[in-house]
Amino acid sequence: MISIKLKLLKPLHLAASHTVAPMASTLDYIPGTAVRGALAQKYLDQPGQAEDQDFKNWFLADEVRFSPLLPLGTSQKYASACEPLPLTAFKCKLYPGFKTRDAGNHGVRDMLFEFIRGHGRLPDDRCESQGCESHLIPADGFYAPDGGLIEIRKHLETRTAIDSQTETAAQQQLFSLEVLEEEQVFGGSIELASIEQEQLFTQKLMREGLELRLGAARTRGLGLAQIIQVSTIASLPASQKTLAARLTAFSEYAINDQQIECDKRLCFVLTLVSDCVIRDEFLRFGGTITPQVLGRYVHPALANASLLGAFTRTRMVDGWNAAQKNPRPTEIAICAGSVFAFGIDAAAPELAAYLQYLERDGLGERTQEGYGRLVIDHEFHKQEGQR
Ligand SMILES: [Zn+2]
Fold first, then answer.
1. In angstroms, what is the span from residue 26 Cα to ligand 1's centroid?
2. What is the DSSP letter of 194?
3. What percentage of the chain reaches a pLDDT higher than 90?
């Protein structure tokens, strides 16, 4: 796996959708699609370069995974890793931050188990810090697993539209673009079929110092970024035995300590850490992950699981096909941070065998572009949950 960090040299606008509006908002992270597109373009821009075997190995092979690049902070001080907060995370309205790490008893609280116990209803609870009693609000955004919440800096840039006939500034047509501010660092990973391919890729193309053009309005000086850190690390999927032990421990915690209602032998939880695109047998997009979805994409036996609870949100995904110079059809994705809890009548080693490659391979469609990344039985739900 190649771990990369990238710094914005200029503000960046990543259109959240094709919708034309006076104010266009930006995504908070850089999708894998954008990273892959920018690197592929860089490769083809080299003199005499064509879509050769290297190009196929690095950008098109089935095993290729370009993860989204997530915000890490500014270049003066940035986190080593970042994850989206699960949608089950809530925080004190007055004092954000983490309870376990920051002073006081305010802060982020994971409500997954409370939600399952309440049969899909959230308790109308307040911050439990003495004398605070503030409302709890969804803790949207990103956090560093070894630190606190990550702040994203954005601002609005007002521009004049360009007249498509004359290619000069159009009269009385101002619009605003929301942009991610420069000097922010984003990090993620790229996986190729083998460590040899990854070494070749970092020698020939993905070097520190490489400048890339990302996002929209590139001709207007936006979207210039620089790779500031590249490292190749060996990554092995967890062994079936380790996964089985993790599944047992988490399930016992959920059923015994958290007292969730589960009439099956095991309970397991899937937490999306990137957006996920699911289609059914009629190619319709799905807005949630059901046992049937797991049965179709992961292992047929998982279709017998039962859904204990789902915390989910969807968004439209628009894109641009650079080769055809055309917009891509709109798709629907289940948002990163969505959480799904299941019960299943299976022994832990059996379940571990079904789920063994899920974290590595991802779930659903477009996994090469970083969609469908998830964590099985995420520790966050235990660490930040209410006991
Ligand atoms: Zn509070």
1. 30
2. S
3. 59
Query: How far, in Å, is the centroid of ligand 1 from the Cα of 105?
Result: 7
Q: How far is the CA of 383 from the centre of ligand 1 (A)?
A: 18
The tally of CA atoms less than 13 A away on the side-chain side of residue 228 is: 18
CB burial class (10 A; 0-12, 13-18, 19+) of residue 133?
Answer: exposed
Q: How many CB atoms lie within 10 A of CB 158?
A: 9
Residue 195, domain extent: 2-82+150-232
The whole-angstrom separation of Cα 37 and Cα 44 is 11
Q: What is the pLDDT of residues 139-161, one digit of tens each?
A: 889 999 888 889 999 999 887 76
Average pLDDT, the chain: 88
62 by Cβ neighbours in 10 Å (0-12 / 13-18 / 19+) ranks as exposed
Per the domain annotation, does 225 fall within a domain?
yes
Asked if residue 320 belongs to a domain, the reply is yes
Distance in angstroms (rounded) separating the CA atoms of residues 232 and 197: 11
Which of 325, 364, 365 lies closest to 37, judged by CA?
A: 325
118 CA → ligand 1 middle, Å? 23
Residues 68 and 196 in one domain: yes
CA of 175 to the centre of ligand 1 (A): 39
The stretch 239-248 carries a mean pLDDT of 93
Encoded amino acid at 383, one letter: Q
The counts of H helices and E strands in the chain are 9, 22
What are 71's two structure tokens? 């915000």
The verdict on residue 313 lying in a domain is yes
pLDDT tens for 159-190 read 776 776 777 777 767 778 899 999 999 999 99
Q: If we measure between CA atoms, which residue out of 290, 292, 298 comes closest to residue 367?
A: 298
